[in-house]
Amino acid sequence: MKWYTVFNSRTKETDYRNIAPLPKMSDPAAKAFRRQRLDAQNGNIDGAVHVTVTPEDVLILRIVLTDRTDVYGRTIRCAEGLYGTSEDIRREWSEIVSLAAGLWQQEENWYDRIVHGEDIHLLKPEDAVHLLQASPEDITAAGIDDLIQFTDTIGSFTVDKAGAHRAQSSSFRGRRQWNPVQAKHRYKILCRVAKAEKQVWLEGVDCDSGRCLVQSTKMQQTKSGYSIGKLERSAEAIRNYMDGYGWRETK
Questions:
Q1: d(CA 167, CA 143)
Q2: What is the 3-state secondary structure (H, E, C) of the chain?
Q3: What is the pLDDT of residues 30-87, one digit of tens each?
Q4: Is the N or the C terminus of the chain less surrounded, counting Cβ atoms within 10 Å?
Q5: Which among 125-129, 152-156, 158-162 has the top mean pLDDT?
Q6: What does each C-alpha distance from 127 to 18, 114, 138, 150, 192 come to in angstroms?
Q7: pLDDT score recorded for residue 239
Q8: CA atoms within 13 A on the CB side of 215
Q9: At a CB cut-off of 8 Å and minimum separation 6, what does 93 contact?
Q10: For residue 211, what are the contacts with CB-CB under 8 A and spacing of at least 6?
């Protein structure tokens, strides 16, 4: 999956623009992007995460208000999220759902990370993905699990206070049985240790790319060391999470 950071906002002096450059989107994704920005201009800002899915790309986006004002004293808003492309978006479905849930759960917007006065410090796509990765224990929005279970209805959806909701009509039909070229992805569970911080945690890692897909809550070392029981429960939580998303563990 090729990800791009989405960030449309302004500084105090300059007008709204795509601060993070984007490639050409598919027509449905581009229309959704324009429609959401227009809704925000008209004052319809609810902070919901809107996910527009097509067979070749996906737009994960929310529009929020910042605590900054422009030169006229108006509150600055920002449209933030991720845009991704793939040869077969169905293979990326679990990651898409997880990142959308992670964006919804983020309390802080990205404005202060990116805009420093009139200077811009772009947020790299890989850093944005890392920010949005949620642990199994953190994904609490109602309907998130259902989204991944029904891979024959892959399509656009929204995540808000009431949970996750599919669009009335799917962008395209998925499938429950994968073709050989669409074989299930494999992952392995790795234990990470930060010696300086005396912390340990588990990660579910893609065997092909080495990318961390999900991680457990970090555990602090005690006088008696680390709790094996807690690590085993974290591993089981990762297995249940990845199994629900169609991934197969490799020992």
A1: 13
A2: CEEEEEEEECCCCCCCEECCCCCCCCHHHHHHHHHHHHHHHCCCCCCCEEEEECCCEEEEEEEEEEEEECCCCCEEEEEEEEEEECCCHHHHHHHHHHHHHHHHHCCCCCHHHHEECCEECCCCHHHHHHHHCCCHHHCCCCCHHHHHHCHHHCCCEEEECCEEEECCCCCCCCCCCCCHHHCCCEEEEEEEEECCCCEEEEEEEECCCCCEEEECCCEECECCECCHHHHHHHHHHHHHHHHHCCCEECC
A3: 999 999 998 888 888 888 999 999 888 999 999 999 999 999 999 999 999 999 998 8
A4: C
A5: 125-129
A6: 18, 12, 19, 29, 19
A7: 87
A8: 18
A9: 148, 151, 154, 174, 245, 246
A10: 205
The one-letter amino acid at 94: S
Highest mean pLDDT range out of 87-96, 114-123, 126-135, 182-191? 114-123
Question: How far is it, in rounded angstroms, from Cα 200 to Cα 33?
Answer: 40
Give the dihedral sign, CA 27/30/34/39.
Answer: positive
Cα separation, 74 vs 12, in Å, equals 10
Contact in structure between 203 and 214 (CB atoms under 8 Å): yes
Q: Which residue's entry shows tokens 């912390």?
A: 199
Q: Give the confidence band of 177 by pLDDT, cuts at 50, 70, 90.
A: very low
Q: Whole-number mean pLDDT of the chain?
A: 84
